[in-house]
Amino acid sequence: MACRSGCCCGYGPINEDNARFLLLALFIIIYLFCGAAVFSALEQPKEREAKERWAQRFEHFSQKYNLSKKDLNNFLRNYEEANVAGIRVDTIRPRWDFTGAFYFVGTVVSTIGFGMTTPATIGGKVFLMFYGLLGCAATILFFNLFLERVITVIAVVLKSCHERRHNKAVLPQNGRQVSEGNREGGAAGGGGGKGEDLAGWKPSVYCVMLILGAAAILVSCCASFMYSAAEGWGYLDSLYFCFVAFSTIGFGDMVSSQRVVYEGHATAAYRLGNFFFILTGVCCIYSLFNVISIVIKQVLNWLLRRLEAPCRCCFPRRGHHPHRHPRQNVVAPGHLRTRRDPSIETDAINESETDTGRRMSGEMISMRDFLAANKVNLAIMQKQLSEMAIGHPRQCSSSSRQNGFSGGVGALGIMNNRLAETSVDR
Q1: Quick check: is 317 in a domain?
Q2: Which whole-number Å values give the CA distances from 370 to 65, 80, 354, in the listed order?
Q3: How much is the pLDDT for 344?
Q4: Could you tell me if 42 and 159 lie in one domain?
Q5: What's the pLDDT at 14?
Q6: Is the dihedral of CA 115, 121, 123, 125 positive or negative?
Q7: What domain range includes position 251?
């Protein structure tokens, strides 16, 4: 009892997944507070200045044309309603012809949602709910498949470069390069370990992050040149638009390809280039975000390992508490964590096997047996769904959870065991 009351945990071992989730939630909350403080310090003076300037212009306009403030406010409200419907002072392309509607559905399924075009009818709003449900799901699947192929291509290229460096580094004692026959004989005799290392080599997440970051910067810089020339924006504003659009934030303060005709530029070619850059940029930024999430998860795992030291009093080194059942995925030292590899399938089967004879004899099944059987069925269904999603059965390993990257859903599941930092055999 003294250990429990003096422990920082207070309630015994913490589930590792829950601990990682809580750490990430805490990090996001702190990140939000820091971001709010920075943006408030940067943008609030500009907002106050704009409000003062607008109040002066409003007062001057009402006095110059002898208009009451009430009538002027009503007129401005009418303009705001027209603005929502797509009416602007400057001439812009129609919002709901086929090309305008195609641009709109593109922002919907890509989850960019600029907001400059929104359905105004009840039928349009209802249709959007069902259309976006299927479209966004299909687009996210497309992004995941794109990420899978990008990771595969990068891994093949990096592995080829690694093999070339490894072959050049294999030198005899006299400093000359070994011939192919001697190299194969050496590998068969005693160098099999290096061959196995090459066979199981995986690229580092940091190399993949660097390559994807360079690709995203290259696409953004090229797109910014196009937007600066066609839209008349400053280059920094064009970079800002690229990040907002490619990351699917989509504020809507700056929107590309909204004029009817672009003088001095081929309008069709510009709109085709706009579509290409947005599609490519979204795919690159999506892939980069998911690789960065792997790095964030590495940091969380490092923090969990650091937090194990002051909490070791919760984990007795020898024996177990007589009234405490072993828990799954606890933040425990490595030699305790690797002794047992529990899973929902094996736990449920073991719990239900003890009373199998009684159930076969025709007695009424107990609630405990009923719940255990449901756990087995749920585990089998989850395994089948997972195998169907990734296209092949998942290989289980006794060390599958030691690095905290096993399993995963969506992009994390795709990158699992494809990078060196997510590999179970590290």
Answers
A1: no
A2: 81, 61, 13
A3: 37
A4: no
A5: 73
A6: positive
A7: 141-168+202-309
